[in-house]
Amino acid sequence: EFIEFGSAQAKEEEKRAFDNDRAHVFHSWSAQDKISPKVWAAAEGSTLYDFDGNAFIDMGSQLVSANLGHNNPRLVEAIQRQAARLTNINPAFGNDVRSDVAAKIVSMARGEFSHVFFTNGGADAIEHSIRMARLHTGRNKILSAYRSYHGATGSAMMLTGEHRRLGNPTTDPDIYHFWAPFLHHSSFFATTQEEECERALKHLEDVIAFEGAGMIAAIVLEPVVGSSGIIVPPAGYLNGVRELCDKHGILFIADEVMVGFGRTGKLFAYEHAGDDFQPDMITFAKGVNAGYAPLGGIVMTQAIRDTFGSEAYSGGLTYSGHPLAVAPAKAALEIYAEGEIIPRVARLGAELIEPRLRELAEENVAIADVRGIGFFWAVEFNADATAMAAGAAEFKERGVWPMISGNRFHIAPPLTTTDDELVALLDAVEAAAQAVELTFAGALF
Ligand code: PLP
């Protein structure tokens, strides 16, 4: 309705967007001279449209945020209604929608939580979570996994595993790393998940001992590792880390920015660790409002909240809990709470996606590993960049806009993707994997 695909005007708009982008937009995470960004015209459900009207399934949900698809009428309407009433209010005031969202998150999160601190996204949620942990415990050191991504601001960048911050100045010297379990690339030469789990816990225990347990405020962990490889921890690992935390008075911060709000088939991914498992803080963003406006936050226990009962917490942002960001969060939480979407993600992840990918791995000699859960899967290849590029081209040929990270396909479509779209996506994964295999084998022989 906004654009006639393929028309002269559409082509003109696309060209203007691209030219101005190249002339004036500085892109994140990019070598500015080497990029040629695709310009999108519109999106609906799980489909992205370019200016010619070509349709592509959104395989990566826009950095794994568009959990409820594009142009979801309930979220759009929530923003429109809020915009017509109250668009901007200093966070020091009360705000009915923000209160509703806080109450709803606390009631939906499994465990004993009491308060929510709102931020503009994931990285600032991480910054505040570790600041609060330091003030709460009176300790300064923070531990995180090498294979992790926690955001691109000061301390969040330091928490993010070493390889991500090459070239960045050290802004927080009190952050230390450990090797969380990853069977496929085991640092311990483990051959089973049990072995990998046991040794990763022993290693973490050593890191805690050598860094000085009494100096460590918190361990920050993604309950399922996201952009660093989609790694589901072995059964017992999160519980083992929790035990170490309890033994030494260390806080457990679950970074659910990417996997929270249904991605793994549970509201929060830490729930896979069992009914008794509870983190001290949860950081969230993305799925909380399906990416309809910038929003993130921290869910915390009463004990942490009480640290700042009589002494002020100094920290916050002009737009913390912005009305136009919490309005779609309220609508999104209502949709999650209706109870259809997340159980379907768990079921289709186990019954449709997993068997199909495992079968593919049997047939395709270039596939090194398949792993994941819910609507969150990695297919890892033994292949070079040329072969991966052939895979990307095949995806586009088949109407899928790929999410590829190094030698991995990441499969993370919106949680509302239909059965037919999922099958089309998996067909494309198979064809793209074949293109990788043929190109790589072709280079070898
Ligand atoms: N933590 C995790 C686990 C993430 O995946 C991300 C982003 O992908 C972040 C933190 C940072 O979030 P943001 O990009 O909203 O700052």
UniProtKB/TrEMBL annotation:
<dbReference type="GO" id="GO:0030170">
    <property type="term" value="F:pyridoxal phosphate binding"/>
</dbReference>
<dbReference type="InterPro" id="IPR015422">
    <property type="entry name" value="PyrdxlP-dep_Trfase_small"/>
</dbReference>
<dbReference type="GO" id="GO:0005829">
    <property type="term" value="C:cytosol"/>
</dbReference>
<comment type="similarity">
    <text>Belongs to the class-III pyridoxal-phosphate-dependent aminotransferase family.</text>
</comment>
<dbReference type="Pfam" id="PF00202">
    <property type="entry name" value="Aminotran_3"/>
</dbReference>
<protein>
    <recommendedName>
        <fullName>Aspartate aminotransferase family protein</fullName>
    </recommendedName>
</protein>
<keyword id="KW-0663">Pyridoxal phosphate</keyword>
<dbReference type="InterPro" id="IPR005814">
    <property type="entry name" value="Aminotrans_3"/>
</dbReference>
<dbReference type="InterPro" id="IPR015424">
    <property type="entry name" value="PyrdxlP-dep_Trfase"/>
</dbReference>
<dbReference type="InterPro" id="IPR015421">
    <property type="entry name" value="PyrdxlP-dep_Trfase_major"/>
</dbReference>
<dbReference type="GO" id="GO:0008483">
    <property type="term" value="F:transaminase activity"/>
</dbReference>
<dbReference type="InterPro" id="IPR049704">
    <property type="entry name" value="Aminotrans_3_PPA_site"/>
</dbReference>
